[in-house]
Design a protein that fits this description.
This is Nucleotidyl transferase domain-containing protein. Belongs to the transferase hexapeptide repeat family. The chain has 383 residues and is α/β, with parallel strands linked by helices. It is built from eleven helices and 27 strands. Strands 1, 4, 5, 6, 8, 9, 10, 11 and 12 form a nine-stranded mixed beta sheet that branches. It has a five-stranded parallel beta sheet with strand order 14-17-20-23-26, with no helix packed on it. Strands 15-18-21-24-27 form a five-stranded parallel beta sheet. Helix 3 links the parallel strand 4 and strand 5. Helix 4 packs across helix 8 and helix 4 crosses helix 10. The termini are far apart.
């Protein structure tokens, strides 16, 4: 039996994703036509013997979140629940706080996935890898390879090249440690709670030495990466499965554009029905494009590559859109041009206007390059 827990990371502030996260919680922001979190859920639902999906975070549930959960349960025929943390507890504290919910039903294993990652999600491969490596109760980190400079912006993994055991783990080191980085997707057995519990007890003991009004919260605020993985490395319990598939973080508006490109390209294999095609009387489609059925698009418009058009969007004559996400209710008037941008909800781009953001893709000449921190044009209302 497997349970999946999708951790919703960084919801309290999400400052790098503003102003987009003012309208919807970041995990529900549409990437390649569907909420960011739906890509995770679709991957989970494909794994045999999946029993339940738990979403965890500090975000206050609202009507939009509840509607998303209801629709997802109906579409994927699986139980999906949201568990709200009383405070931001970190990547380890959240699952430890709700450990009784996770182990109910006696699962053999469960996945933990950060919500702000874009991936092919090789979950079944990770399960097979776990069975072939180490003990049945070993833990697996999904890893990928980055270039030397960028690797220092992530959790770095030193592995035994023969066994794939994690020998050393350092979160965002100041000097080069390894080009294998942590993807924020993990496969655990319930034994992981013994190790997280050890950190919790240590935190409690340290709190007793301090006068603090929020000691319990501080004791439960646990980071999987720094507090747990660093201690587990080299003990024969932690392994890394290196993926050759695509992976990227989604920390800002610019990285959402790049993630949309990766998912749109994956649709050729997973959801070809989501990709628009050139049809008589329709707009010109160049490359991978998603168009919501409720969008109204003039046949003289040109869209693509890497374009996602949301619900109720109006695109008028002669409009050109490339490398962009156009959100619900936006109005792109005659002959405007939108490049490398996110057009906000119910925004208007006026006639003959040109809106162009700065491309922020990884270096195309470096196959190991990842996203850097960047800014990107995000429109609220343009007349």
């Amino acid at each position: 039996m497997c349970k999946y827990n999708v951790l919703r990371k960084g919801e309290k502030k999400c400052t790098r994703f503003r102003p987009l996260s003012f309208e919807v919680p970041k995990p529900l922001f549409p990437v390649a036509g569907v909420p960011m979190l739906q890509h995770h859920i679709e991957a989970c639902a494909k794994v045999p013997n999946m029993k339940e999906i738990l979403l965890m975070g500090f975000y206050q549930p609202n009507e939009e979140l509840n509607r998303f959960l209801l629709n997802a349960q109906q579409e994927f025929k699986i139980s999906i629940r949201y568990l709200q943390e009383y405070a931001a507890l970190g990547t380890g504290g959240g699952i430890y706080h709700f450990r009784d919910q996770i182990v109910s039903g006696s699962p053999e294993a469960f996945f933990v996935m950060n919500a702000d990652v874009c991936s092919a999600f090789p979950l079944e491969e990770m399960l097979s890898f776990q069975k072939e490596h180490g003990e049945p109760n070993s833990f697996v980190i999904l890893g990928t390879t980055a270039n030397r400079k960028q690797s220092m912006n992530y959790g770095c993994i030193v592995e035994n090249e023969e066994t794939n055991e994690v020998l050393h783990y350092v979160e965002k080191p100041s000097t080069f440690v390894s080009d294998i980085i942590n993807c924020g997707i993990y496969l655990f057995s319930p034994d992981i709670f013994q190790h997280i519990g050890g950190v919790f007890q240590k935190n409690q003991e340290e709190m007793l030495l301090e006068e603090s009004t929020n000691g319990w919260h501080r004791a439960e605020a646990i980071r999987l990466e720094q507090d747990v993985f660093t201690a587990l490395a080299g003990q024969g319990k932690l392994y890394v499965y290196k993926t050759l598939g695509f992976w990227s973080q989604i920390k800002s508006a610019g990285s959402a554009i790049y993630a949309s490109r990766l998912y749109l390209n994956q649709y050729h294999k997973t959801h070809p029905e989501r990709l628009a095609t050139n049809k008589k009387g329709g707009p010109k489609i160049s490359g991978n494009v998603y168009i919501h059925p409720t969008a109204n698009i003039d046949p003289t418009a040109t869209l693509g590559p890497n374009v996602s058009i949301g619900t109720g969007v109006t695109i008028s004559a002669g409009v050109r859109v490339r490398e962009s996400i156009v959100l619900h209710g936006a109005n792109l008037q005659d002959h405007c041009c939108v490049l490398n941008s996110i057009v906000g909800w119910d925004s208007t781009v006026g006639k003959w206007a040109r809106v162009e953001g700065t491309p922020s893709d990884p270096n195309p000449n470096d196959p190991l390059a990842k996203m850097d921190s960047e800014t990107l044009s995000s429109l609220r209302s343009v007349a």
